[in-house]
Specification:
The protein has 250 residues and is α/β, with parallel strands linked by helices. Helix content is 36%, strand content 25%. Bound molecules: adenosine-5'-diphosphate. The site of adenosine-5'-diphosphate (ADP) has 12 residues, from strand 2 and helix 1.
């Protein structure tokens, strides 16, 4: 489903080269639930941007749903993007549109029939428990509810997988827990879920309960992967050679 093979990404700026990801290899299977954990600067946003084709890898191969992103034709990019639902930290809802319209809008831009929209939108909103708040405006909802609308919008196309980018960054601890559990529920219906976050305490708490896989990024490398314990040994060796400190999460 999601395959990174020796993927690197270096950003060239006017006076420096920033290595954001270095030789990343990982594989995420259909139906998996994966936390990608790392603190600021570890390469998390770059990981997401490469999958969404907002940025291109400078080395290696990314394959998503059988499509090699190095070879994909430009006109196929929107279709690939529709196969993944993305949820952002800042919700990205349109303030002047109702909850229903915010979710429907995501479908209207893709020429889907009104009849299909009328059945899909309430279905997506019921999955996140907001069917009774369809006519509200975003600012009439709590932060957690706004994030649920964003999750419904990500689900409305029936994507093969969901990527969440720091989905709890703007939420208090209780709402964060609710949203994280919502992702668990989404995964239970067969959708692959990748949640990228620095919230390491929350992740460890939930992963212990649900036995999720955790991939940790540090210095643009995979520091550990609970599905592949050998990765941690390789990283430890490299980190010792390079003199990386063992960083604490903040
Ligand atoms: P995270 O999301 O984990 O904080 P990022 O992927 O944003 O990490 O960044 C990883 C590294 O790449 C950082 O050192 C950052 O400064 C650098 N970086 C990210 N985006 C850019 C960019 N557009 N131009 C230059 N350097 C960048």
């Amino acid at each position: 489903m999601i395959d990174f093979e020796h993927v690197s990404k270096t950003y060239e700026t006017h006076n420096s080269e920033n290595v954001a990801l270095e030789d990343i290899s990982l594989h995420i299977d259909e139906g998996e639930f994966v936390w990608v954990l790392g603190h600021s600067g570890a390469g998390k946003s770059t990981f997401i941007k490469l999958m969404q084709m907002e940025e291109r890898a400078t080395g290696g191969t990314i394959t998503i749903n059988g499509q090699n992103l190095n070879k994909i034709k430009r006109k196929k990019v929107p279709f690939l993007r529709r196969e993944m639902g993305v949820v952002f930290q800042d919700f990205r809802l349109i303030p002047t549109m109702t909850v229903y319209e915010n979710v429907a809008f995501a479908m209207r831009v893709t020429n889907i029939s009104t009849k299909h929209i009328k059945s899909r939108v309430p279905f997506a909103l019921s999955l996140v428990g907001l069917e009774d708040k369809m006519d509200r405006l975003p600012d009439e909802l709590s932060g957690g509810e706004q994030q649920r609308v964003a999750v419904a919008r990500a689900l409305v196309h029936g994507p093969k997988f969901i990527i969440a980018d720091e989905p709890t960054g703007n939420l208090d601890p209780e709402m964060s827990m609710d949203i994280m559990q919502l992702f668990e529920a989404i995964n239970k219906v067969g959708i692959t879920v990748v949640v990228v976050t620095h919230e390491h305490q929350l992740v460890h708490k939930l992963a212990a309960k649900y036995h999720n896989r955790i991939i940790t990024l540090a210095h643009g490398l995979v520091k550990s992967d609970t599905a592949d314990p050998l990765v941690a040994e390789e990283y430890a060796q490299l980190a010792a050679e390079r003199g990386y400190e063992d960083e604490e999460f903040v």
